[in-house]
Specification:
The chain has about 350 residues and is an alpha+beta fold. The protein has 3 domains: about 10-70, Uridine Diphospho-n-acetylenolpyruvylglucosamine Reductase, domain 2 (2-Layer Sandwich), CATH 3.30.43; about 75-225, Uridine Diphospho-n-acetylenolpyruvylglucosamine Reductase, domain 3, CATH 3.30.465; about 235-345, Uridine Diphospho-n-acetylenolpyruvylglucosamine Reductase, domain 1. About 20% of the residues lie in helices and about 25% in strands. It contains 7 helices and 19 strands. It has helices at about 30-40, 95-105, 195-200, 210-225, 250-255, 275-280, 315-330; strands at about 20-25, 45-50, 55, 65-70, 75-80, 85-90, 105, 130, 130-135, 140-145, 150-155, 175-185, 240, 250, 265, 270-275, 295-300, 305-310, 340-345. The strands form 6 sheets. Strands 5, 6, 7, 10, 11 and 12 form a 6-stranded antiparallel β-sheet that branches. A 3-stranded parallel β-sheet has the order 1-4-2, covered by helices on one side. The two termini are about 25 Å apart.
């Protein structure tokens, strides 16, 4: 475990945040659990950080301890002719795991290529993209609940997954040690595609099974076109992906909006998901917008992403986010919910 003082701007994809009181680096689950148990007993204020792709830290963090999750590893637990069950350590890179699964012809996560961050963070908000969600493939999670001194393996149902949400965002406190996934063996083909964007991009029919490598390549290209793949050569990728979740509203409410607004049916037939990016652009925020004098701006590629244009402060990021929320609420009567964790504000 290391406790060297480091600015959290160097450990997050948004590249903002001050220096915490200390950083405890945990390279395996036992170190992770030991650190958490000690911190819970002391009532010390702490935050668990892994890939840093979904977190915006404030500048003043003098009273905050960071538990840095760095455990890595992928292990095949069981397999048969149809399925493989894989256990992945919490600190492992999510996209590295997706790339590994595609290379090994395991299907079920290919449309979630290019999402930054770590495996252990994905259950928290049921990460997903292009018609797939991690809850589709998670079977169980090793979890240390707050106040406990021993981890327990919990089934996926324990975490109450829903669209970009889970019990981990609503009162269930603890730490993820590893996540187990059940993937399909489909002879190098994907599961049926639930994304019209992918099938249109590839000239295929909606619901088609497509070659895994082709799906991954298409998703990475689509995400890169929106600045959603982290790249040193793309300043629009210096952010945390989508800053707001797409709102889920009633079908009745959706009738108040113009027909050209993107919308998607939800499993609950009385609800639809609508485009937060459309709401933002049609509340007067074009791509590339920034408050005069601010180093924070909306991505030039995607209205749903807030980016650091170089040397932005966390206060500038939040100022822009709040302005967007206020104008969208005033124009459309919709309260946009931030997707990243906002720590220390």
């Amino acid at each position: 475990m290391s406790n060297a003082p480091v600015s959290l701007s160097t450990l997050t994809t948004m590249q903002v945040g001050g220096v915490p009181s200390r950083i405890i680096s945990c390279g395996n689950t036992q170190q992770l659990y030991d650190a958490a148990i000690e911190l819970w007993r002391s009532d010390e204020k702490f935050h668990v950080l892994a890939g840093g792709s979904n977190t915006v830290f404030a500048e003043d963090l003098a009273d905050l301890t960071i538990v840095h999750v760095t455990n890595r590893g992928v292990e095949i637990v069981s397999e048969d002719a149809q399925f493989v069950v894989v256990r992945v350590q919490a600190g492992h890179s999510w996209d590295e795991f997706v790339a590994w699964s595609v290379a090994n012809d395991y299907a079920g996560m290919e449309a979630m290529s290019g999402i930054p961050g770590s495996v252990g963070a994905t259950p928290v908000q049921n990460v997903g993209g292009y018609g797939q969600e991690v809850s589709d493939v998670i079977t169980q999670i090793e979890f240390l609940e707050k106040g406990s001194v021993a981890s327990v393996v919990r089934p996926a149902s324990y975490f109450e997954f829903s669209y970009r949400d889970s019990a981990l965002k609503h009162g269930l406190e603890g730490l993820v040690g590893w996540v187990e996934f059940k993937l399909q063996k489909l002879a190098g083909m994907s599961v049926p595609m639930k994304s019209g964007q992918i099938t249109e991009y590839l000239g295929a029919q909606y619901g088609s099974a497509l070659p895994l490598e082709q799906v991954r390549k298409a998703v990475l290209e689509l995400r890169a076109s929106k600045g959603m793949v982290i790249s040193e050569s793309d300043p629009d990728s210096v952010g945390c992906g989508s800053f707001f979740t797409n709102p889920v509203i009633s079908v009745e409410k959706s009738l108040e909006f113009p027909e050209e607004m993107q919308r998607w049916r939800m499993p609950n037939e009385d609800q639809v998901k609508i485009s937060a990016g459309w709401l933002i652009e049609n509340a007067g925020f074009p791509k590339g917008y920034s408050i005069p004098g601010s180093k924070a701006g909306i991505s030039n590629k995607h209205a749903l992403a807030i980016t650091n244009r170089g040397g932005a402060s966390s206060a500038e990021i939040l100022e822009l986010a709040r302005l967007i929320q206020e104008r969208v609420a005033a124009r459309w009567g919709i309260n946009l919910i931030p997707e990243p964790n906002l720590i220390g504000f």
